[in-house]
Write a structure and sequence with these properties.
Elements lengths: L1 E2 H12 L7 H4 L5 E5 L4 E2 L1 E7 L2 H9 L4 E6 L11 H13 L2 E5 L1 H5 L5 H8 L3 E8 L2 E13 H8 L8 E3 L5 E8 L10 H6 L4 E4 L6 H8 L2 E4 L2 H4 L2 H13 L3 E4 L7
Parallel strand pairs: 4-5, 4-13, 5-6, 10-11, 11-12
Antiparallel strand pairs: 1-3, 2-6, 7-8, 8-10, 9-12
Helix pairs in contact: 6-11
The chain binds fe (ii) ion (FE2) (2 copies).
């Protein structure tokens, strides 16, 4: 058994890895911390990629007192009634289920984030942050002339069955970018990839215009699924909690192929 206060301290210390971030500017719409303070005594922590009523019910059924997710729900944009928000929030209140959300901090975390975890998974070393809209959401990684086919084979069973690969770039990879979730590059970012000699761009989602852009710049593009690329950091966080805290954990798998 641990307390919610000690869990909150542990998570804040671990995940707020750089005190200089102004999180309300970097990530204004998603939570990076404790969202609902419920039961103080915690025997079990549930972890999931995204908050939803179904995930809350699964956490409750698993007998967890706290839930940690990457995507919390959106808060009402104005001071008005919002049915979706009220239903989700009232479930937490009625069931005394604490909720933590770590969005930007889990994408960008230099030890357990989704993107460093993806780079480590393919045997790469971390080089430097990859900027998205000016902020370090992803990472550049280095592998040593690794065949693309070997990377894809090694990753495949951890990615979405609906993943997309555009193998328009080199057959052997030296530099990758990992930016999980909806990390699809914006048109001005393409030159940033070219200038940095990126051979493989790994993200979660795809967009219509991406295929021809990547064909023209001759860079490989892998969209491994938003959900699947954002399991990595949650699973790394679960492993660390198991190692460091005297508490049970359970990963709540509400799989989503997007
Ligand atoms: Fe993310
Ligand atoms: Fe995401």
């Amino acid at each position: 058994m641990i307390t919610l206060t000690s869990l909150n301290n542990f998570l804040s210390k671990l995940l707020i890895y750089d005190k200089k971030f102004n999180l309300s500017l970097v990530d204004p719409y998603m939570a990076n911390g404790l969202v609902y303070h419920g039961e103080e005594k915690i025997n079990k922590i549930a972890l999931a990629v995204s908050a939803s009523l179904t995930v809350f019910e699964m956490a409750k059924k698993a007998d967890a007192q706290a839930l940690i997710v990457h995507h919390v729900f959106n808060f009402p944009p104005n001071v008005r009634y919002d049915q979706l928000f009220q239903n989700r929030y009232s479930f937490l209140v009625k069931n005394n289920l604490s909720l933590f959300g770590y969005h930007f901090l889990l994408d960008s975390h230099p030890q357990i984030g989704h993107n460093v975890s993806i780079i480590k998974e393919i045997g790469g070393t971390i080089e430097k942050p990859f900027l998205h809209k000016g902020n370090p959401w992803g990472y550049f990684g280095r592998v040593n002339n690794l065949p693309l086919a070997k990377i894809i084979n090694g990753l495949k069973n951890k990615l979405s069955p609906s993943m997309t690969l555009y193998d328009f770039g080199p057959k052997n990879i030296n530099r990758v970018v990992a930016i999980s979730g909806r990390g699809t590059p914006l048109p001005p970012d393409i030159q940033y990839l070219v200038d940095n000699k990126v051979d493989l761009f790994i993200t979660g989602e795809n967009s219509e215009w991406i295929r021809e852009i990547f064909r023209e710049v001759k860079i490989n593009y892998l969209a491994g699924g938003h959900y699947h690329t954002e399991r990595f950091g949650i699973l790394a966080l679960e492993k660390l909690i198991k190692e460091k805290l005297e508490v049970e954990t359970e990963f709540i798998e509400l799989v989503n192929n997007v």
